[in-house]
């Protein structure tokens, strides 16, 4: 995954050595008479001295700092500030005399502003005790100093540190001012025509160069330097200058002209001697630059010969050894490009040794020019990087990354350096799977791809194409990690954008086309659109006709083409031809083992595809053979190793099904085990391997089945990693099988291990809720106060970032924040912004432009992309640190986290559970395949404690439950859309399902409870899988007035045992009710019953009006609800609600000003709330994709701390909601100790109150379909 770039070869050392040689030669020529009038005429008092060159070196490097990069303040904040405090026509916010002030005055003002700004922030932090004054370093991306300032080991940074980089910013402005002075003193050279090219046979045959139009500041400076020299030395001096940047390196005409002029000048020197050798090396370096543009192999060979001969000849002479670093660099540069072209990494051994020696010596020598160190440093990094790709040397890759990070740190790095560092990180991620490398690569790719937008340099297309390609490869890896096809769409778009920027002879063009084809194929596999398969083949065929060499560190294009054609083939003949071409391409390839591993995998999968089509046994064995070779050649730490192990196991199981040879099954078990336990593998791959491991163990009756099931359960939190935002966690979990936990529980029940079955069900269900609960304050329970403080901050940070709206700040909130800031603070910011604009404007005018050349739309897009990458990397780093802190819990023995789940897979707290079971049993129902079971947890009356009992349910299977759930959902849909009458819905759908539930499940359980005298005042039902969608509480015979469950006992639902324990342990609070009603919701039908419910509440609690707060109509806003929630202990909602099927965490109550989403409720502390009545539709509907996660509004209330909830499984009639509310409150008050003086209803009586209210509705002849949806959850 590497691309090779032109490198910035200019250096002070190179310039100084050439300059000294030329001055010596010119002095000698002056003494003996002028050799050439042009040359002689350019030397004298007006000739640049060493000091003047040094000055120009400083100036010409300055434009690499783009003035348009300075605006780092949040755009929305500045926009609001300007709107709130608009500057007058005199721009009072800008420094006085801005239009006439000198650059020095600007700089002084900015430095004073910086000092005042720091003082204001320090005062503000002291006055307001700003919590963010010390922020954990782990909330930053690791590439923002995490390693140096704390990273995963803790540490924090101060809010004041944000201004510590300001002096560097001012230094950049100072450099820019110097550049502007130079520009203003520079006469226009745009119309000057370079001299004609020499016709010497030894020089390359080149057409006249283009005029330097539109190159902006840097070439203007070069032209000034050139204009001060003789015309004969114009291009020579330009090449020597420090301004030889990436832009110049990619200018073919300029390089050709420079080569010819330098060659002509070399003819005027003695044929032998150090000067000629040195010029010979310089010619070779220019030719190497030119080779990286036109990619002609002969030019490379000649350039390598020139740089090599010059280096060895110079060593032989043994004179002027201070010039040796430049020659070493030229020699290494040539060897690196030659190794890249031939694939011979051993060619880089000598260059690397020489560069390391030279760099180690020079970096400690006082007075060594910085650029000498820089160019040696960068070339060393490039050579190490190249050797790591060619020879798979991990140490080289790590060293290259360290060198490149040092080079890029503290400066605005050129895009080629950003790309090279990014590709190195991506390659290391592919080898070892460290997500931090992918984060870094993604960030660097965005920066490099946006470089053109920042600098308006249309001739930087090669580097921008590299940035886009790198970004596409990073997006591909994110697709594998997050299973979102959107990443493939973006990756394909980026590759297609990059292609037109590349020359036809550039080998990178083939690489880009090949990767585009693979992305298209991947999207075809993911989405099934054959147009992607056709497009992939077209790109590969187009690349095949290009007369371009291929680098051997990538899969050859013929391999990819044959692989795609094998899948596209419509006949066996076409498939056979494609497979044969693939084998031929494989035989001719020689390269790194990790590339050979990929090729072997392509061959194996082609055979597997042909086997799937035609079922020949030989193809299966061939696929197996090449899969083994692919695994052998893969890196031991590569994430691909888990994928290949999984793939190998799958092939072996196919062979086992054919020949029934148990050895194949046992071998498959070993590969599945390796894939599951391989820590570098992607979590989804490891979890899939655990499932296949369980299948294989079951097939051969292996005892490893238990290990497979337990490993899989422990992997679930890793699959839904807290480092992903909740939408990603939800999508990944939805893509996995929802039966794995039920399977583990069924196996434990079959082995009569009921306690283990309960533990499995607690571990494998409600994973998302459990992880969300871990972010509650105090949830880390660390031993040290510092860790506790950091853990609490991380918990808050991760909780806010969970739903991708953690940084949502409304304009109103921004205005409030601004109101709290001192006026001088705002003035300083506004003045600073004005000064920046003035600097940009002055710089643009100095370049002869009407206005600053800035593409604001592109800049804004770039800013958004950088922010997105930054936030994602911050989340990853915070999650890693959070997990490291939580490891301390392992030393606390049997301690539980605040979610109630044991970190060690142990049974829930016995004592707390026993207290709850005194009121009634808990019944857990599990279905898997053809078996169904109930586990009854009950209070042991005689001996005390918790008992477990198994109730077999042989008349019910998992398929039966699935059919009932789907039939009920379809029946409700038809009934609610008025395509089915009430009578027909009840007779053909609802009642048959309730009878089946009674006969197959509820009746056997009730009989068991009666037999053991455990049928008390209530039952807590804990259904799994699709059972969560079925109204178990309403099951009954529905025949001749025989009693059903509703008549026998009160029913409550719980998602997990731990949720019930949390509710039982919550502290009791005095009654204070907050009622929210929205009779008329904008965009929805009116609910007149909502107003009636408020009247019912006021009537029921008329003796204590001060205990009831009602928000209705325009007062029922999200903001006012949040404000009034602080001291309330009871809640009532009478409004519209909706279960969001696309993303259930966005299920909402609809209030006057918008939705109150479940994702927002999750972040609220509702632990003081005793009871909530959700008189709205679909508040406990659940999610069909993840039924075991219980993602609905009622569960959100319960997990956020509400002890007792009444909710609805589907839509309810407005009038029935009024009746239910009235009945529930009436029975709650009648069963409590409340009187005229004391109001003390018990939320623990809510289930019984709902039961009685439903029985009242039954007596009142309310249709069954209208009363069944009401359920109780919790205590």
From TrEMBL:
Transmembrane residues, as ranges? none
Residue ranges with Low complexity bias: 192-208
Compositionally biased region (Polar residues): 46-67
Q: Where on the tree of life does the source sit, at the highest rank?
A: Eukaryota
Report the residue ranges that make up the CHAT domain in this protein: 993-1257
InterPro entries the record matches: CHAT_dom
Question: Could you tell me which residues belong to the region Disordered?
Answer: 30-68, 186-208
Q: What is this protein called?
A: CHAT domain-containing protein
Q: Which organism is it from?
A: Panaeolus cyanescens
Native organism taxonomy: Eukaryota, Fungi, Dikarya, Basidiomycota, Agaricomycotina
